[in-house]
Write a structure and sequence with these properties.
three-stranded mixed beta sheet; 34% helix; 17% strand; four-stranded mixed beta sheet; globular; alpha/beta
């Protein structure tokens, strides 16, 4: 959690406040695949953020999560975020697979957190080859080959909507 907080502050220039742990809602559990539905987790997270507040919330879990992608109802994901919304969720479950060491897991988790919070700030998927906002398309290789940072186009887009935010290092 410390690395995620540092990463979000450094790359997205956001204020981070931690909340106490919240139990996963039973309604989000998808028994046939022993996973939690990421969209249902977002619904639950929405209830934890005041509507009038411009705050965003990121849920972090170690359970497997999934969403619907195209015709696939139960597509396993690293994370899911509302585009220009208030909530996102990430899971370390898939991010830990075949990682070289704890530093590699940390890079993946922080990069995924930046990606999903980026969605809540209005950034869509990007085509820049090493931008953290690139769609993983079901492959951890996309995360591993990113810089973990916004590419020039996404940085410019974020700076345009948040001109008062200090520029990242």
């Amino acid at each position: 959690a410390d690395a995620v907080e540092r990463g979000l502050r450094a790359e997205l220039q956001v204020e981070v406040r931690r909340m106490n742990d919240v139990p996963l809602p039973r309604a989000a559990y998808y028994a046939p695949r022993h996973r939690y539905r990421a969209d249902a987790l977002l619904d639950h997270l929405h209830t934890l953020v005041p509507r009038a507040d411009r705050a965003r919330i990121i849920g972090m879990t170690d359970v497997d999560i999934s969403t619907t992608k195209g015709r696939v109802f139960d597509w396993g994901v690293f994370g899911l975020g509302d585009l220009d919304g208030s909530a996102c969720v990430i899971s370390t479950h898939r991010l830990r697979r075949r990682a070289r060491d704890t530093a590699h897991v940390e890079f993946r988790v922080v990069s995924t957190a930046v990606h999903e919070v980026g969605h809540t700030l209005g950034l869509d998927h990007c085509v820049e080859p090493r931008c953290v906002m690139r769609d993983a398309e079901g492959s951890i290789t996309t995360v591993d080959t990113s810089t973990g940072r916004l590419g020039p186009e996404c940085r410019a887009e974020l700076d345009a909507v948040r001109p008062s935010a200090p520029r990242g290092p």
